[in-house]
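ok new one. same drill as before - C-alpha cells go in, u give me an amino acid for every spot. 498 of them this time. try not to just spam alanines like last time pls lmao
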C-alpha cells in the first residue's frame, strides 16, 4: 500500500510594534532579562489589559494580504493552562471569533500538489494573541525572562493542504516574504520572531480520511521544518507498513540527531477551558478604520514578479531579484518605464550595481570593524547613497546600444560613474573611450593584424573558424580596445575569404 502525507502548519509571527500587546512596555529584543516588564506583563492581580491598536491594524492588514475575510466582530478569549513562562496561567488569544478567517496564499512551487508551477494553501485564520516568556534551562535550575511576555503574536493557521516537506518549505518562505514586505513583522528567525508547529499525518493514497495527527512543536528554522517533515513522514509510513498504530501525539525535533522524539501522547484534544476575556469589549472595526488599514496593502511579491516579467519582458531570474529586494525593484522600475530596453537596464543593475554596492560595503564594514564598531552599528551604503542619478544608467545603456562605446569600455565607464558620479558622456570623453566605427581606420588595423599573424590566418582558411577570435584580439589590441567589435569581425571575414 502506498501512503501520502497531509501537512498543516501553525505559524507564530511576532508583530512589528514599539510596545507590547496590553501595556506600554517596549517590544524590544536583546534587553537584559526582565527589564521590559510591568504589573500587566507579569499578570499581577487587579491589572487591566489595553489593546495595542497598531497590533490590531497589523492583524487586519495581514488578513488583507492573505486574501482573508475580515469579520465585523471579533473578540479575545482566555486560554487556560499552567506553564512557568505564562505568569497569568492563561493566554489572551482569539478563539471562536478571530479578526481574520478563510484566506489563501499562492506561491511558486513545482512539486506534488502544484498547478501550473504554483502552490496554493488555504488559511483557516490569522488570529491575534500574546507571546509568553522565555525559559532557559541550566544544569540544576531554570530561569524565565518575561521580556517577551505580552509581545503581540499572530498565529496563522493553515488548512492541511501541504503535500510534503518541500511544499511546506516553499509556503513558509512565501508567507514570511509577504509579511516582511507588508511591514507586519521583521520575521527575523534568529530573534525568535517566527516559530512554527508542524501537524503531520499520513493516509493511504486515494483515501480522504485523515490519519492520526502528530504535532512537531516549536520549530525555529524553515530548513528544520523541511528536515523534520521529511523524517516524520517516513517514520509514520514505516510504522503503518510494519503493522503498527499511530496515535495523536506531540513530538520534538532533534536537529543534531536528525530525528523526532515523542514528548507526550494525547488521545483527545487538550481542554483549555476557553471563555471570553471579561476585561475587554468585543472588537467592532468601523468602515473608516478598515479603509485606513486597507490603504497599507502592498503589491504581493508573486504578483510583482509576474508583472515585471510581463510588462518589462525580463527573465524569471531577474524578476526574482527585484521581487525579493523591494528597493532595488523600485529603482529598476523607475528606469524601465523610461527605457526601450528594460532587459539591458536590469543587467546593469543586477550584474554591476549590486556587485559594486556589495564590494563597497564589504570594504566599509572592514574599515568600521577595525575601529571597533559592533556589526549592529555599521553604516552600509544603500541606493540612496549612490553618487550618480538613476538616469545616468539610461545614458550608459544608450551609449552601448548606439555603439558609441564597446562593452569593455562600458565597464570602465560604470566603474568611474560609481566612484565619482560623473556623467557617462564626460567619462567617455575624458578617458578617450569612444568606439572607433570608421571603416577605413578599422580596415588598416585588420590589414596589420593579418600581415603580422600568418599562423591564425592559415588556420582560419583551413577551416578552423575559432582562429578568427585570435585575429579579432590582435585588432582590438592595435586599436587600444576602441574598434567596434562587430565591424572588426565583418571586415576580417571579408578580407580572409577574398
Amino acid at each position: 500500500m502506498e501512503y501520502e502525507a497531509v501537512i498543516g502548519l501553525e505559524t507564530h509571527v511576532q508583530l512589528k510594534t514599539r510596545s507590547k500587546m496590553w501595556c506600554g512596555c517596549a517590544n524590544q529584543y536583546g534587553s537584559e532579562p526582565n527589564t521590559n516588564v510591568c504589573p500587566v506583563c507579569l499578570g499581577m492581580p487587579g491589572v487591566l489589559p489595553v489593546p495595542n491598536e497598531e497590533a490590531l491594524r497589523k492583524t487586519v492588514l495581514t488578513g488583507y494580504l492573505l486574501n482573508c475575510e475580515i469579520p465585523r466582530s471579533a473578540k479575545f478569549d482566555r486560554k487556560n493552562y499552567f506553564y512557568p513562562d505564562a505568569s497569568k496561567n492563561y493566554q489572551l488569544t482569539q478563539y471562536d471569533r478571530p479578526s481574520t478567517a478563510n484566506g489563501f496564499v499562492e506561491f511558486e512551487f513545482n512539486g506534488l500538489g502544484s498547478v501550473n508551477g504554483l502552490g496554493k494553501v488555504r488559511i483557516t485564520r490569522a488570529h491575534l494573541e500574546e507571546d509568553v516568556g522565555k525559559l532557559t534551562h541550566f544544569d540544576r535550575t531554570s530561569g524565565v525572562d518575561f521580556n517577551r511576555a505580552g509581545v503581540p503574536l499572530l498565529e496563522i493557521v493553515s488548512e492541511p493542504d501541504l503535500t510534503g516537506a518541500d511544499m511546506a518549505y516553499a509556503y513558509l518562505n512565501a508567507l514570511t516574504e509577504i509579511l516582511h514586505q507588508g511591514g507586519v513583522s521583521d520575521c527575523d528567525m534568529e530573534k525568535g520572531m517566527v516559530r512554527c508547529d508542524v501537524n503531520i499525518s499520513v493516509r493511504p493514497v486515494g483515501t480522504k480520511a485523515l490519519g492520526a495527527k502528530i504535532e512537531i512543536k516549536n520549530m525555529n528554522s524553515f530548513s528544520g521544518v523541511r528536515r523534520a517533515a521529511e523524517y516524520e513522514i517516513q517514520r509514520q509510513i514505516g510504522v503503518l507498513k510494519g503493522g503498527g498504530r499511530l496515535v495523536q501525539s506531540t513530538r520534538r525535533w532533534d536537529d543534531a540527531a536528525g530525528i523526532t522524539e515523542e514528548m507526550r501522547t494525547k488521545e483527545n484534544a487538550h481542554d483549555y477551558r476557553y471563555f471570553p476575556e471579561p476585561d475587554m469589549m468585543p472588537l467592532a472595526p468601523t468602515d473608516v478604520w478598515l479603509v485606513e488599514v486597507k490603504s497599507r496593502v502592498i503589491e504581493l511579491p508573486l504578483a510583482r514578479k509576474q508583472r515585471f516579467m510581463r510588462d518589462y519582458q525580463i527573465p524569471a531570474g531577474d524578476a526574482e531579484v527585484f521581487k525579493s529586494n523591494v528597493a532595488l525593484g523600485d529603482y529598476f522600475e523607475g528606469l524601465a518605464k523610461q527605457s526601450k530596453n528594460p532587459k539591458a537596464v536590469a543587467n546593469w543593475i543586477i550584474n554591476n550595481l549590486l556587485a559594486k554596492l556589495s564590494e563597497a560595503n564589504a570594504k566599509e564594514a572592514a574599515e568600521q570593524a577595525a575601529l571597533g564598531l559592533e556589526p549592529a552599528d555599521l553604516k552600509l551604503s544603500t541606493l540612496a547613497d549612490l553618487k550618480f542619478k538613476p538616469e545616468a544608467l539610461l545614458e550608459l545603456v544608450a551609449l552601448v546600444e548606439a555603439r558609441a562605446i564597446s562593452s569593455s569600455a562600458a565597464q570602465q565607464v560604470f566603474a568611474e560613474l560609481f566612484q565619482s558620479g560623473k556623467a557617462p558622456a564626460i567619462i567617455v570623453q575624458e578617458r578617450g573611450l569612444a568606439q572607433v566605427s570608421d571603416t577605413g581606420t578599422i580596415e588598416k588595423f585588420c590589414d596589420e593584424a593579418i600581415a603580422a599573424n600568418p599562423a591564425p590566418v592559415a588556420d582560419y582558411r583551413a577551416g578552423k573558424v575559432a582562429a578568427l577570435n585570435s585575429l579579432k584580439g590582435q585588432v582590438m589590441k592595435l586599436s587600444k580596445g576602441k574598434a567596434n567589435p562587430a565591424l572588426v569581425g565583418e571586415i576580417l571575414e571579408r578580407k580572409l575569404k577574398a
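The first strand starts at residue 3 and ends at 14. and btw The two ends are 74 Å apart (CA to CA).
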